[in-house]
Amino acid sequence: MKKKGLIFLILFSGFILSLLLSLFFGLEEPFRGDSALILSMIRIPAVLKAIVAGSCLALSGMMLQTISKNPLADPYLTGLSSGAGLGIVLSILLFNGINYSIFGFLGALISACLVISLSGFSKFSITKLILIGLSLNLFASSVISFLILLNPDKAYSMTLILTGGFSSADISNKTLCLLFVILLFICALFIPKLNILRLDSRLVFQNEQGANKFNILFVILSAFLTSLAVYSAGILGFAGIICPLLVRLLLGSDARILFFGNILAGSTLLLIANFISNNLIYPMQIPLGVVVAIIGAPFFVFFLVKKGGAILK
Amino acid sequence: MCRLWGKIFKILVFLLFGLFVFAPAFAKCAGECPLGASFEGTESIGNHKTFVSISPAMTEIIYALGAEDSLLAVSNYCTYPNAAKEKEKIGSNYSINEEKVLKLRPDYILALDVSEALLNKFRRLKITPLCFKYPDIQSIYNNILTVGKLTGKEKKAKEVVDFSKQKIDFAKKKAQSEGRAGKRVLYLVQARPMITIGKKSFITDIIKQSGNYSVTESLAAYYPVILEEYAIKLKPDVVVLSHFTEIDEVKKFFPNTKIVKTDAEQNDIINRPGPRIYKGVEFFSGL
Amino acid sequence: MIKIEELNFKYNDEIIFENADVEIPSGKITVILGPNGVGKTTLLKIITKSLKAQATKGFSFQNDFKKMFYLPQNASCPTGVSTFDYLSTVFFKNGWKWFLNESEKELVNKALYEVELFDKKDLNVENLSAGELQKANMALGLLSGADLFLLDEAVSNMDLINEIKIFNMLNKLLYKEDGGVTSVLIMHDINTAANFGEYFIGIKKGKKGKIVQARKDEFFTKENLKEIYGIDFEITNLNGKIYVQAVG
């Protein structure tokens, strides 16, 4: 218990530190002139989006990993990423990329709905869901490659946008916060039920084969979370896999604890990644998705090799 | 003992992997394509050679020199002059119809700064690709002169270049006399994320020739992706947007700055290193 | 008590049960015996209604138990959770609560006490032994309010002492003050089964759908065992204790 408290303290201070760093690094007089403009127009929206995208991805990864009992499950499992990518590419081709994040959001939701309804409500099985999602991902990503090849003049900007970043979404801070808080509230209602799903699914309690009901519920919830993440930060791979795994390594598998752990860890990861992507080769920007994978992968492999027994079991 | 070897093996594999990751940084010169300028010293090749152009700018040059009869086919993106749209099409950089090229059997392929892989594709078909570069306006003039030599229209080529030089000189002087020169220009290819032009782009030179100054000219890339806050700190006098960017997307970052959006034709002029380049200079000097 | 009449079931074309009658009495430990592949697990799944029996005219399913709890052999368990938290999971199923109230905590403690795991309640579940983990799972069953445990080889692969401990525990559960818990076990070790079981269901090999069921003293005859397993047995009865030995 003491150990968990300490880990929470570390996570929280990391979060605050990265928050302050992202907001105020390199600004001489934060509240005057151009600096105020930069703060209100660029940094605060970016920080908000990082928190929203990070928490959403981590939470949705946690849900899917728990219900599928598979550490490989990631938020884009349900064909979300390619659906979102397809939406973005189409919006670039048809509308010159104006408000492409809303198209990403819609694409993500539509593909998730398609996959979930195809995998069936009454005879729902998570394996079926994963396989259908995989097929949709392959299908949609091939279409994306084809569209990019057909339009080489826009290939550069399409590839860039598909790697994800915070400059994309034209959504007001208020709307984003509102959506995020609503989703978090719904998650908080259902999170304790995630604890049931970590039990062996063969332990049948008669008259209560309702575990499937919760499975579908969490899949739908995670699709919404991921779509919101896509809306605010584009398609960021990896964050949704490593955050839940890392937090589980550190904090055990009580969903109630993991809920807060994932929100903190996800936001911190994206804030740090955002900071690095903005400042490493200043004034140029490294695509956010690239940074997430580059700092995330070694960090995660290190933890896995050092103390990965718990999740590999 | 076994453990030691295992460790050594691990370290070696790590080093090897590191080499893989950082190799691109060392190998950046490997893919450069040969300069078209290497034809400068050659004799006039005569007007019986045939060409296929896979670049809109090269097509424009051919038409400007009046050598369109030797042009067998163009790419799907060659839209200027209008007559070019009537020519045979062979696809674009990423999807060249090789069979069509083989049937047409041109002597040369005219390409503008494409990958070595694409050039090799033509070499396998036993057709010589000529790859031109365009880091600045002078190199564009050289390209025009080289194409003049290849098509046997050297005189016309010289006329085109001299005309362009005169126009540019005039535009610059006019801007200076009217006190419009010396502006700090931020040229945005795209607003989200912000893509601008760097040191290697010829547009930087166009802006320079117009008597103005590109605020991002020190960045060492063709099209660097920059931070929005950096763009604000640069305090440009004018922001120029490409035709597919909305003013609203940028207005919030530059509330008190003049923002100019190019139309599709201006965008083509600015982005094509061809004979209409002086119009690009005129555009920037008129800001 | 559960009473199934004229049970018919087949996988695709393979007939598993044909007009079989099955009875599970309350308040006794029932053991299901039979070689691999005759349909022991299938029978349990039909009882839990995970599998649906063919709806023939004479089919009837009569169930007096309130709730059933099915426990497989190697149930997976989460990591990094204390035994107490593992058991408290059951209470999140209904309602919107985040924490257990005092009376629910009391119930968890009681269940832990009943399965003799009270001293290990702060230990993480992944650190429990196989036997202890199955006990913890049975406590889950108790907490869910089940009065019928269906243990599918749940005590196989366990050492002698743990096996005996679990049987003692099951015996105690039969007479729990707030309603006894009946257990049905699938087993392979005939001697242990004969030692602890009171009622037996034998499913015969080869002759599909034939079921032998009886109380302990009537069940263990040479004829019955030969019919079930297809080989000869020697049965020794020492003061009511039955020892079984396969011959040849």
Please explain how this structure is put together.
The complex is a heterotrimer of chains A (313), B (287) and C (248). Chain A has 313 residues and is mainly alpha-helical. Chain A has helices at residues 2-24, 33-68, 80-95, 100-118, 126-150, 155-162, 173-197, 211-233, 239-251, 255-279, 288-307, 309-312. In chain A, helix 1 (2-24) runs antiparallel to helix 2 (33-68) and helix 4 runs antiparallel to helix 8 (211-233). Chain B starts with a helix and ends with a helix. Helices cover 44% and strands 15% of the residues of chain B. In chain B, the strands form 3 sheets. Chain B has a 5-stranded parallel beta sheet, with helices on both faces. Chain B has 2 domains: 36-152, Nitrogenase molybdenum iron protein domain (Rossmann fold, 3-Layer(aba) Sandwich); 177-285, Rossmann fold. The longest helix of chain B is centred in the N-terminal third of the chain and has 25 residues, at 2-26. In chain B, helix 4 links the parallel strand 6 (108-112) and strand 7. Chain C has 2 domains: 2-66 and 147-247, Rossmann fold, CATH 3.40.50.300; 79-144, no CATH class. Chain C has helices at residues 40-48, 83-88, 102-114, 130-143, 160-174, 190-196, 216-219, 222-229, and strands spanning 2-11, 14-24, 29-33, 60-63, 68-71, 148-152, 182-186, 199-203, 211-215, 232-238, 241-247. In chain C, the strands form 3 sheets. Chain C has a 6-stranded mixed beta sheet with strand order 5-6-7-3-8-9, with helices on both faces. Chain C is globular and about 55 Å long. The two termini of chain C are 38 Å apart.
